[in-house]
Amino acid sequence: MIDLDDLIRQSLREHTHATAPDDTLAELVVAKGRHVRRTRAAGLAATALVAVAGLAWGWAALPLLAQQGIAAAPTMSRPTPSEPTPAPKATVRNVAKLGDPSEGANGTTFLRNDFASPTGNFHCFISTAGAGCSGEKWDKGVKPSRKTCGATEGAVLGPELWGGATAAWECGSDPHSLPFLADGADAGGKGVAWWDPTFGDSIPFPPDSSVRLAVLPYGKTLVAGDFSCSMARDGVTCSNAVSGHGFRVSRAKVDLGH
To answer: Rounded to two decimals, what is the model's pTM?
Structure first.
């Protein structure tokens, strides 16, 4: 194989005048060619080195770029499981099949359910035959005088509602309602069988704090057949859904036409 330097020398000899060849010029050309080749080789080597360095940097930076890309991407957060919505507490309880067996004035029998107001001032009952409330304290002029009752009928107890008749003041010698939890425990007699801590409240009975009253809380209602009794801050309301008669009783006022 002919060397490139030899080709350069031969070309110079063929294209120069007949004078003796200048070997110095040929050597300069050869040296220049070597310089060009070295420069080109160095440039190629530098380019290759830059390419290799760039490739190496790319591989090294790839995890970081990937992490930055992931960080920049919107985070898809999982919805936090919500707490189950608690079931609303019951405000009405049907007591038609509960209660203490009792007998009415006309000989009818029924199951009586007794309850007290949150203040403890009113003791009431409800049944499928009727409802009524008696009060411990009344504002002046609200409760009728004892003269309303006959000599053998006892004292005025409070308003009562029986059957389809209108409400009226009733008299008696014995209390018609006994809303007592046995010995202050969470259970009582049949007359308070409707009561439990999830529906009713309790407060101490003033004459004996060891005994507690079965309280119908504000906003709660007992239902027995056609009759219902509801507790509110302005008093107790009992009514007959069929006849439309009823009463509302509070310490300050009694409405017998409700």
So the answer is: 0.66
